[in-house]
Amino acid sequence: MINLKSIHKMVFFVALFTLIPLWNIPHTIAGRYLCEGALLICVLFYKPDWSSFFQKNKLLVVFFVYLGIQLIFFSENYQAAFSNFRAEWMHFILFSIIGAGTGLILGRKNSHQFLLYLGIAFSVPLYIHLILFLFKSISIGAIPWGYSGINLIHGDFAYPALEAIILLCTFCILQTNGKIYRYIAIALMTICVVSPLLAASRGGVGFSFIGAFFVMITYFLFDRDNRISNKKKIFLLLSIPILIAGIYKIGVVSNPNRWSGILSRVAIGLEGNPSKVYCEGIEVLENALKDKGIEMTPSIQKGLDSVVDGDGARMMAARAGLMLIYENPMGINQSKEAYQQAITQYCNHTPKIFISHTHNAWIDTSLAIGILGAILLLMVLINYAQIGLISFRAHLSSSPFGLALFASAVMWALRGLLDSTMRDQMLEMQAFIIALFAGIVLAQNKLNSMVD
Questions:
Q1: Rounded mean pLDDT of 117-144?
Q2: 189-208: per-residue pLDDT in tens?
Q3: Could you tell me if 121 and 69 are in contact, meaning their C-beta atoms sit under 8 angstroms apart?
Q4: Do 241 and 287 have their domain in common?
Q5: Distance from chain centroid for Cα 315
Q6: CA 168 to CA 18: how far, in whole Å?
Q7: 91/93 Cα distance (integer angstroms)
Q8: What is the pLDDT of residues 408-434, one digit of tens each?
Q9: Are 316 and 271 within 8 A, CB to CB?
Q10: Pair (209, 251) in one structural domain
Q11: This prediction's pTM
Q12: Total domains present in the chain
């Protein structure tokens, strides 16, 4: 006899743990949305207590409503805007709802290994990369620095590494009951640094360390019952900058052009009129530097080259984006290509220097859905972080998930300052996992109050 309840449960967990790695594996859009639909159906059949979630997340509802208002009343091209909404923000809404429902369901049971399982699921693209990297090394007889395997962008390693290391570090600190699990968590966290390093993802390496460091600092500051001695705390806190220095040295040796001279290249991006540079070409910036009496040395020339494609471009594009926000305060058709459209309109012709986005999630989001939309989204993350921190400090059974929620919300808000993370699969991933942890926290807190 077919047990429909068991099949339902199996589909739920298969869809959940298939979806998470697919977000950072290329050419899997169909698979992601198949899992999205399966999870939505499964969650609806479980009938979670939606009211308990949305009562604590009224700002999320306000943001959903704002997206509809912005779409209807402030779009210049309704057909394009609706297409953009379906491709981007509709999935943000759906994955927020699915994540909340999944969390409310999982929160009914207290799994001590769930953070570990999630951390492993997020790390799957990193395991694939390391395996392919090993095969590549054997085939060429050398270390193929910068090799990305089947992936096309460094972000496919950087983003899952950040979330995975937050979950694994939280598990290691709050939920490991034996040395074996602790060693497993440490080994997996090491992979979260090694994979981005081998792929030459500076942001991936840096934010992996920052994510782990943030979790530890939060634990030391807000968990009054922690039993870690002051000597161990000092050792752990000092080990992070030492490891960062060592990793940075490895990066410089492996690829000096990419890892060294970052600050000087970024400094070039602070010079000149950014919009004029993109409209009229790099000669505008070169003339501006010469007018200031700056000699065109090889290092300055490298900085100029980086404005076309490199670290200088990130700073220059962010400055240009800030200027364009004030000319488009209500956003441009909810488009992830809003910056391209805004700079083209500003120039009245195709820009001489092309860059797809500003490499800043908050600027790109403001250009897509307006300044108010970006502010509301930030407030949603702050509200999530507050829920997580309150739960963590309360020392309830939900504390580990509270810490994971707090760290995830804060770190993704900060990550957006250096990369355009509020788009495509990154936006879906954040909407889902942060809502999931909020759902677990609220469900477990409700259970605790019923027991009391």
A1: 95
A2: 999 999 999 998 888 999 99
A3: no
A4: no
A5: 19
A6: 19
A7: 5
A8: 999 999 999 989 999 989 999 999 999
A9: no
A10: yes
A11: 0.93
A12: 2
